[in-house]
Amino acid sequence: MSAEPTPSARPLRVGFAAELEQLRLQVELMAIRVDQNLERMRAVLEDGEIEVVAVSLRTDDDIDAMNVSLTERCYDLLRRESPVASDLRFIVSVLRVLSELERIGDLALRVIKLAPEHPLLASHPPTYGILLDMAHHVIAQYREALRAWATLDLGLATELATRSPSMDLYYERLTAELMRLEGPDAVRLGIDTFAAGRSIERIGDHAAIIGARLRYLLTGDPDHLIAEVR
Amino acid sequence: MTVVAPELDRVPSAAAIRQRRLDVSGAVFKGALLAALALTVALLVLLITDQIVDGWDVLSTRLGDFLTSNVSSRAGSAGVMQGIIGTLTIAVIVAAVAFPIGVGAALYLEEYAQPSRLTRFIDINIRNLSGVPSVVYGILGFTILVKALGSFTGGASVLAGGLTLAILVLPIVIIASAEAIRAVPGALREAGYGVGGTRWEVTRGLVLPNAMPGILTGTVLALARAMGEAAPLILVGALQGFFTGGQWGDLTGPFTALPITIFQWAKQPSDAWRVNTSAAIVVLLVMVLLVNTTAILLRNHFEKRR
Amino acid sequence: MSADPQLDGPVTIDVSDGASTPPAPSADGTVVFDADQLSVFYGSFRAVRDVSLQIKQHEITAFIGPSGCGKTTVLRCFNRMNDLIETARVDGQLTYHGVDLYDPAVNPVEVRRRIGMVFQKPNPFPKSIFDNVAYGPRLAGTKKKSDLEDVVESSLRRAALWDEVKDRLSSSAMGMSGGQQQRLCIARALATNPEVVLMDEPCSALDPIATGRIEDLMAEIKTDYTIVIVTHNMQQAARVSDRCAFFTTEVNEESDVRTGTLVEYDRTDKIFSNPGDQRTENYVTGRFG
Question: What is the pTM of this model?
Answer without folding.
Answer: 0.81
